[in-house]
Design goal:
The N and C termini lie far apart (108 Å). 70% of the residues lie in helices and 0% in strands. It has nine helices and no strands.
Amino acid sequence: MHRLFITAGLTIVVILASGAGYMGTLPDVEAEFSYLKKQSSEKSVAPYSVEELDKQNENMLKPVPRDNDDYVDIIIKKDKSSGYLNDVNSVIMILEKLRRCLNTDNDIQKFNAIVSNLIDNIDYITREYKGKPEENYLSYNRLIYVSKEARDAASYRMKGRLALKYQPSSSPDNIYSKEKFDEKMESLLNIVNDTIFILKNLE
């Protein structure tokens, strides 16, 4: 029994020592796994070029809504001088009151109060931004212009009221006739409308 075990052991040792090995055909490992190389190569290549990606992103972005007042005020103007814009916004609100007054109201006291408020606000802006970049803005110079025209109209209206005591409105020599008064107020209304448009479209 022991001899058989030893013989079997020697046989195994002899076979291993003699250099005998597997005599069959080995599988082609490189061919078998070539699909993995292909997949890896395909994954490493970007599906789109940089230019194509930029174009896709551009198409996905919504167009800028420049006709949207909120967008213009919040997005486009956010980097501008907020102080100047806030001051101009205050003037816009006064001009809108003046426009309503010119369109619907013949109350001279109300008219004078609005004009006085307008002049005070514009005087503040012209002093505050004189010598600064804002002084070169179209809006800045337009404010000076509308202030002067509103002051002239208020003065004309007050003088016309006094003139009525001494000279009939229908007199051909009366520079404060109803026709001339209406013409003056219409001119101011057009200036106010144009100014509101300019101020609301600050860039």
